[in-house]
Amino acid sequence: MKNFQDEKQRDLSINKSDGTNKFLTTDQGLRINDDNNSLKAGERGPSLLEDFILREKITHFDHERIPERIVHARGSGAHGFFEVTNPIPELTKAGFLKEKGLKTPVFARFSTVAGSRGSTDLARDARGFAVKFYTQEGIYDLVANNIPVFFIQDAAKFPDLIHAVKPEPHNEIPQAASAHDTFWDFISLMPESMHMIMWVMSDRAIPRSYRMMEGFGVHTFRLINEQEESVFVKFHWKPKLGTHAVAWDEAQKISGKNPDFHREDLWEAIETGNFPEWELGVQVIPAEDENKYEFDLLDPTKLVPEELVPVTIVGRMVLNKNPDNFFAETEQIAFHPGHIVPGIDFSNDPLLQGRLFSYTDTQLSRLGSPNFHEIPINRSVAPVHNNQRDGHMRQEINKGRVSYHPNSLGGGCPYQAQIEQGGFSSFNERVDAHKVRERSESFNDHFGQAKLFFNSQTPEEKSHIVKALRFELGKVETTAIRVRVLGLLSQIDTTLAEKVALGLGATVPPILETPINKGVSPENEGGSQEPQTIESSVSASEALSMITNPTNSPTIASRKVAIICSDGVSEAAVLNIKRALKKEDAKGCIIAPHLGSIVTDADGAVAAEFSFLTASSVLFDAVYIPHGLGLNALAENDDLFEFLNDAYKHCKVIGADGEASEILSSAPFASKITNDDEGIILTSEAATEGFAQDFITAMTKHRFWQREPNLYN
Ligand code: HDE
């Protein structure tokens, strides 16, 4: 038996249990002799109420679930660190940003917003991007999204937005989808949502991977330096792997083939040492520039174009450890935009101000107690001393008789910290105003930046937005809602509205039927602020397009290539591509008509990791068919053509060598392949290293969207 020498040892034994080499016990530490049979009156008799072991086990099981997050319920997370690369002490006194090379432990959680905990990863949705920094000065949470703006300007509308997007209340349909009447009804009456709508209808809402998403703090925050001077700041995460998406048809198929696609991708990348990495950047706006722009810095439906204020990189985040236990860590982690450290402060953004209330409140109902900060994943590494006491599931055993301040009996402890001692103080902002329920006129432009976003997209990306809107509105049953949305779209771009209308068999209404903001019903449109469109001083911004985005890097690290094999496959060709992919930290996976050993032309064997039954093109980034003797059998396989069809349709790289290239000529899409399609890599010879290199170069371009018919033209 263990004899606990000190508190620390005891603490560890409580919190860490890997369950190996241990006796099975009850929660009270009693060793269990039989875990298979309940206590009964005779072998065939009734169970006895006395069976405290059974009751404890079943009671615990009955209470295993906690309420899922009301939004962002579906998510995945990982541990890692943040490292300062470019300290900014002149702007902030935050210790974790002050010193070059300083590393701070972090836990990041990525999520969808609308779906339930068990819903698919690939829903069309914004993604949460929340990072908890365990700093020496206390917890700092940057609770961000992968989209830099939000649907609404005021926290008061958040419950309405979420009620509208969640499954409809009468039948709880549809799950994890915005393509339904209540969402678009709300949107059609909220022109302020139009900028965010452009983002969620773009491919940003269907990322290839959590590791290939940007993150944005959305709101304007403040930085404060040692001299108590403040600047405004916007936070950005820039992914090392670039910002990439899948196709919408692909997203829907992935949802069926592998709803855990993003979760698995993050997990596997970390397990195989491909540690996801982002740079943290700041856009710094001097206090005197607060009113300089055509938009209001406090309006969360606006971004600050990088052309106006460039992003300065301050550090990097690397995620290098998967959680040990999903529930204990990813599920119980409690983020809060109000968890800040000295040197960071809030702005008066009315959405942010509402969030500052919401996140503590939600933890009380979700985690069940004001002691949620004591759950291991939420614990500060900075010591916690205060007079908060008791409550459900209190872990801390506070000693002594003093639980109040000021006190003399406890020597005055714990005592307040002066600012010089690291005590937090809010920015000394002067506020002198009337109490009003009003929205600032500077928030009235709802279309200027929606236009900026749309104009910054490439033709292919514009086409995807048209398609997404046709899909979403096509699922809306109420014609009047569709028409109202078309009216709003026409204020962003008339061609966009017309192209969407074409798909809906509808007509774009004349401009300006836009009831807004103040509880106006569709029938009674008067009496509200008139929306205006202020042209952005920046007409297009590269950073807003995923294709022209400067974060894109020509890496294929951690990408997966399907290598289609059958008995008689060329061993040299398989090894050639596998070797070349490995050099780039990418992976070739063998797919064959059956699992197990595939005999090669050299009488060797390669192991099939997937069969056509367990794999699908949508789970891979590219496809390669090596030459070989068994190709005739493959050429008759319908599954192969479905595989190739999807790869072609989703604009992926397809390669084949030797006789295998002839298989492509019998594919249904063969006649569509154009000579300038750089994503089709074929050679009639046996593949060489040069072929593998061409294949990899094509993969660095990610997708060949030009293959698709352009719906915007
Ligand atoms: Fe959240 N949000 N939110 N949100 N949010 C929550 O907190 C809320 C908003 C974001 O991985 C909830 O612990 C209100 C913007 C992320 O655990 C809840 C408003 C942004 C996550 C909540 C917003 C976010 C949440 C649900 C408008 C981007 C997941 C569970 C005033 C900057 C964090 C929870 C995680 C989670 C409220 C708007 C990001 C209910 C009231 C804007 C990434 O408190």
From TrEMBL:
Its EC number is 1.11.1.6. Decomposes hydrogen peroxide into water and oxygen; serves to protect cells from the toxic effects of hydrogen peroxide. InterPro entries: Catalase, Catalase_AS, Catalase_clade2, Catalase_clade2_helical, Catalase_core, Catalase_haem_BS, Catalase_immune_responsive, Catalase_large_C. The lineage of its organism: Bacteria, Pseudomonadati, Bacteroidota, Flavobacteriia, Flavobacteriales. SUPFAM superfamilies: Class I glutamine amidotransferase-like (SSF52317), Heme-dependent catalase-like (SSF56634). It comes from the Bacteria. Signal peptide: none annotated. Belongs to the catalase family. HPII subfamily. Residues 25-413 form the Catalase core domain. Residues 1-13 have a biased composition (Basic and acidic residues). One of its GO terms (biological process) is response to oxidative stress. Heme binds at residues 69, 109, 158, 355, 359, 366. CDD domains: catalase_clade_2, GATase1_catalase. Residues 1-20, 515-541 are annotated as: Disordered. It catalyses: 2 H2O2 = O2 + 2 H2O. Keywords: Heme, Hydrogen peroxide, Iron, Metal-binding, Oxidoreductase, Peroxidase. There is a cross-link at residues 336-359 (3'-histidyl-3-tyrosine (His-Tyr)). GO terms for molecular function: catalase activity; heme binding; metal ion binding. This is Catalase. GO terms for cellular component: cytosol. Its cofactor is heme. Residues 526-541 have a biased composition (Polar residues). The active site is at residues 72, 145.
